[in-house]
Design a protein that fits this description.
The structure holds 3 protein chains of 3 kinds. By secondary structure, chain A is of the alpha/beta class. Helices cover about 50% and strands about 20% of the residues of chain A. Chain A contains 5 helices and 5 strands, in the order E-H-E-H-E-H-E-H-E-H. Chain A is globular, with a radius of gyration of 14 Å. Helices cover about 50% and strands about 15% of the residues of chain B. In chain B, strand 7, helix 10 and strand 8 form a beta-alpha-beta unit. The chains are: A alpha/beta, B alpha/beta, C alpha/beta. Strand 2 of chain A pairs parallel with strand 3 of chain B, so a sheet runs across the interface.
Chain lengths: ~140, ~325, ~525
């Protein structure tokens, strides 16, 4: 047995179709050795959480360029909690003002990456944070 | 309850609880069971041992073909078709891992465009992880999990680019090889392996020019094969999976194949072969870990290597020393 | 290495012109093949149009901004719609939640369109509408709003972007599959040729292709291919190419690499002229002219040290001007962070005015023409574009390549290669991977859009649905459905439908019931 691969769901929610960032990050996480499930454009929060559950992912990355981040992140978080999937890291990036990042972080959203972030930083963060969460769960005896 | 203690770990309470939840079809439990199986974690054997009595009910269909053939859209059309007739569907979509980084980009899920919120469909993306034996076993075991969770039909989708992918669909009762008109010239040149495993051919994108020619080429190739009265001759079905045209015909052809298999006990022989292969794989991997997995085994191997280098024995002699019964 | 990762020579000289012929390949401005520009008099005859794209909140909010702009001497308007409108959803649809009025103005019905232009005489302004999938319906609303003002369609001037092919390729704001989408565009070309002759029916756009991560040559080639596809559709529908081709314009991205961009515009003009004349048999010189709008590159802006974006934008704008653009939008420094504030928009506009009136570059036409480097790079980009044309043709044409995800894959790969070059430091971005300021604090103000638009739009739509004539409404939608099926021109039926108070979303749903929807296969 080798170590469990990190699985990440990369989504582009909302109506906006600018998927350059989502695709570049998906490719970068793949090249960092992760298994990336890309669900494409215009995913609703319930679609995102359903995919995350079936794919048993460790993390969800949302790319947001429209103004709907304050609607979508909290909804995804709420659905994850409802389905007992609190262990999944919810992170993302895009054009998100600092004060919104702070507000989302208090709700439990992970780090959000702004324009110009090196791809390696994102991969390192996901690896570390997923590793930490896995260790916690494994110590608690979760299969 | 089945006889015998399972290999590897004991069946602890956590496994029992997870098994119960998988049997009830709880999506988060099915998902976690698939993760354990896919990663070949020690508890997976116990889990699969527990689930085994609940398997064997689902109809397992393998879907493969070259890149660009439209396999995922065809899977989407099949899902819709089976859902309409009230059957639940599980999907294992296999995509290759990068041989360099071990990572993978799995994008089939979105192509399958399932109406979300339908609890009758469960889709799981799986990376090939570059290990043929491992993947074949994982794919079969993943099907077992979906089967035990109560799915009526299980679709296993792989890209028919290499041996790995071709082998994986052997987990299925019937195999569909999907081709598209642009693949026409490629049919002749295509790996015999891919063309020979088909129980049914689907000519997808059949509304495009070249579909007739492709169909003729397949039929021509099939005509060259030796066959007796009982031999199943794979039918060629034209489909346009984006509009679902031809999908009912495809399912009808698959049902015919199933009936033929039952008559000639072909299904049974496939299942027998699968069970046999499963036992072999399990024994092989257990043997490997027993013979090489322990620290003293590593030391023993190092000593034998030194013996070979020093001319005290040969690799052949050394091997016989490691095998059970010959240990010092 | 350029921003497109192209290797460039250290030095050019006159000895590698590969048989370039001045009369045949370059010629004078205003002469075929228009390498040096489409006007004999350059900007001395007519300065480029400074057209800043704007829209936010409700129709009334944007109407007030337009009146302010017109009062300040602007003669052209450029409408930015919100995402629900761009995607054909009404403001009260569940998918619209959180997006109404945010990235542009919300327009869901004729009443909204009338309010957008209330008090603005539509026979006196030219209006550019950045709208694609639902362009036919928005144009129908514009025509109907004009009629309500007593302005007949033949007096209307403006543009709809209406470039659906680049939506599949890059911006992804598609609704219907490619074939019915092209049919709608053909209907619009026919309708406008007959009834709205001063209207530009398509602005073939490379902007979004570039923003999605393509190289300069990919932007050039893919965009021109899209344009050729529209021309072929019109010809196939039985129109004379000279009847509609003069109403097709283009829209380029002005990125950071000064000379590569400049040569892109020059090569584009030459290729378009050659293909229109030689391949499509256009005889009216107006059909040969590649007229274009340019916008500076949004992706070149950085969130770090945002004031630097003013400088980037100025240099990009200069390349567009020296490349002979007909109109220009300069981005504001804060656009990677939010919608621009009034102050930052003003600086962006002033940037254009400084280039136009202070630098002197507008006095001379194509001043860089004849530079060994510029001519060589222009030739090279033309050649590379022609190679892409041949490849696409061999793969079965533009629509097939879209369906197979070829363009999308090419762009995704270029974007990833570029990002890797940036991460490795092979491509320098000031303030991002070099000359970085640690612990940088944002020092500029950002614009905030409040959430009240969504509520008021929802209420207004509810009231509209309650008060309209239900029989007239359903008959009008049925006529649209029938036209989708039988192939008769959709435009007049769309005008009737919006006049019967059918909403954007209702009309789109009716069309979806016949045409279906498009789902893309993601490519990497």
């Amino acid at each position: 047995m080798t170590e469990r691969k990190i699985r990440v769901l990369v989504c582009k929610p909302g109506l906006d179709g600018h998927d350059r960032g989502a695709k570049v990050v998906a490719a970068a996480l793949r090249d960092a050795g992760m298994e990336v499930i890309y669900t494409g454009l215009r995913q609703t929060p319930s679609m995102i959480v359903e995919s995350a559950m079936q794919e048993d992912v460790d993390a969800i990355g949302l790319s947001m360029h429209s103004a709907a981040h304050m609607t979508i992140f909290p909804k995804v978080l709420q659905l994850l909690n409802e389905k007992g999937l609190q262990h999944i890291l919810l992170t993302g990036g895009g054009v998100i003002p600092d004060e919104d990042i702070v507000a989302l972080s208090t709700l439990g959203v992970g780090r959000l990456f702004g324009p110009g972030t090196p791809m390696a930083d994102i991969a390192v963060y996901v690896k570390d944070e997923v590793g930490r969460r896995r260790a916690e769960r494994s110590a608690a005896g979760v299969l | 309850m089945t006889d015998g203690a399972p290999l590897a770990s004991t069946v602890d309470a956590r496994v029992r609880a997870l098994t119960e939840r998988v049997r009830k079809g709880e999506p988060s439990a099915v998902a976690r069971a698939l993760t354990l199986v896919e990663n070949r974690e020690p508890v997976a054997a116990a889990l699969l041992h527990e689930l085994w009595p609940d398997t064997g009910r689902a109809w397992r269909l393998g879907i493969t073909g070259p890149p660009g053939a439209g396999k995922s859209t065809l899977v989407a059309a099949l899902i819709a078709h089976f859902r309409k007739s009230g059957r639940t569907v599980g999907v294992i979509a296999v995509d290759p891992s990068s041989p360099f980084t071990g990572g993978a980009l799995l994008g089939d899920r979105v192509r399958m465009g399932v109406a979300h919120g339908d609890s009758g469909v469960f889709i799981r993306s799986m990376a090939s992880r570059g290990d043929l034996g491992g993947l074949c076993a994982s794919a079969q075991e993943a099907c077992d999990v979906l089967d035990a969770s109560g799915k009526d039909v299980i679709l296993i989708e792989t890209v028919g680019v290499g041996q790995t992918e071709v082998e994986v669909v052997h987990a299925a009762d019937s195999i569909v090889v999907v081709l598209h008109p642009e693949a026409g010239d490629a049919v002749q040149a295509m790996k015999a392996g891919l063309m020979e495993i088909a129980d049914v051919y689907a000519v997808n994108k059949a509304d495009r020019p070249g579909a007739d020619r492709l169909e003729q080429e397949i039929l021509g190739m099939l005509g060259l094969r030796p066959h007796g009265a009982d031999t199943w001759l794979p039918p060629v079905v034209r489909v346009v999976s984006t509009t679902t045209v031809g999908v009912p015909d495809l399912v009808a052809a698959l049902e015919k194949h199933r009936a033929h298999q039952n008559q000639t006990s072909g299904t049974d022989s496939r299942r027998v072969r699968r069970i046999e292969q499963r036992i072999r794989l399990l024994v092989e991997s257990e043997m490997r870990s027993r013979l090489f997995g322990r620290p003293e085994a590593a030391a023993r191997l190092a000593a034998l290597v030194a013996d070979v280098r020093a001319g005290r024995t040969t690799p052949y002699g050394a091997a016989s020393h490691i095998l059970p019964g010959n240990e010092p | 290495m350029t921003v497109s990762l192209r290797e460039v020579p250290e030095l050019s000289d006159p000895f590698d012109d590969e048989g370039r012929d001045f009369a045949k390949d370059i010629a004078y401005p205003g002469e075929y093949p228009y390498t040096r520009g489409i006007h004999r008099t350059g900007y001395r005859g007519k300065m480029w149009t400074m057209r800043q794209f704007a829209g936010f909140g409700s129709a009334a909010d944007t109407n007030a901004r337009y009146k302010y702009l017109l009062g300040a001497g602007q003669t052209g308007l450029s409408v930015a719609f919100d995402l629900p409108t761009l995607m054909g959803y009404d403001s009260d649809h569940e998918f619209s939640e959180g997006e109404v009025g945010k990235c542009g103005v919300a327009i869901a019905c004729l009443d909204d369109m009338k309010r957008l232009f209330e008090g603005i005489p539509l026979d006196k302004v030219s209006t550019s509408m950045t709208i694609n999938s639902p362009a036919a319906i928005l144009l129908a609303m514009y025509v109907a709003a004009a009629k309500a003002q007593g302005v007949t369609p033949n007096l209307l001037r403006g543009t709809v972007q209406n470039d659906i092919l680049k939506e599949y390729i890059a911006q992804k704001e598609y609704i219907f599959p490619p074939v019915p989408s092209l049919r709608i565009i053909t209907d619009m070309m026919r309708y406008c040729a007959d009834d709205v002759p001063q209207w530009n029916t398509i602005s073939v756009s490379g902007y979004h292709i570039r923003e999605a991560g393509s190289t300069a040559v990919q932007e050039l080639a893919f965009t021109l291919l899209d344009g050729f596809t529209y021309v072929e559709c019109g010809i196939k529908a039985g129109m004379d190419v000279d009847e509609f081709a003069p109403r097709i314009s283009h829209f380029w991205n002005a990125h950071q690499d000064f000379f590569e961009e400049l040569c892109k515009y020059r090569a584009g003009r030459r290729i378009w002229a050659r293909h229109m004349r030689e391949k499509y048999g256009a005889t009216d010189p107006k059909s040969w002219l590649l007229r274009f709008h340019t916008q500076t590159a949004g992706v070149s802006l950085t969130a770090q040290q945002p004031e630097n974006n003013i400088v980037r934008t100025a240099i990009e704008a200069l390349s567009a001007v020296l490349g002979g653009t007909q109109s220009l939008h300069t981005n504001s420094m804060d656009e990677t962070l939010a919608l621009p504030t009034e102050k930052s928009v003003k600086i962006a506009l002033r940037t254009q005015q400084i280039i136009a009136y202070e630098t002197g570059v507008a006095h001379v036409i194509d001043p860089l023409g004849g530079s060994w480097y510029v001519e060589k790079l222009t030739d090279q980009m033309e050649k590379e574009a022609e190679e892409i044309f041949a490849k696409v043709e061999q793969m079965g044409g533009v629509v097939r390549c879209i369906e197979e995800g070829w363009f999308q894959r090419e762009i995704a790969r270029s974007a990833y290669e570029y990002q890797k070059a940036v991460d490795k430091g092979d491509k320098v971005i000031v303030g991002v991977n070099k000359f970085v300021e640690q612990g940088e604090k944002l020092t500029i103000e950002l614009l905030k859009i409040d959430a009240s638009t969504e509520r008021s739009q929802t209420e207004r739509l509810k009231a509209l649905r309650a008060r309209r004539d239900a029989a007239k409404w359903s008959a009008a939608l049925e006529a649209v459905r029938a036209a989708c099926v039988d192939g008769s021109n959709l435009m007049p039926r769309l005008v009737t439908a919006v006049e019967a108070d059918a909403t954007l979303g209702e009309i789109i749903d009716t069309m979806k019931s016949v045409f279906g929807t498009y789902e893309e296969t993601p490519e990497f």
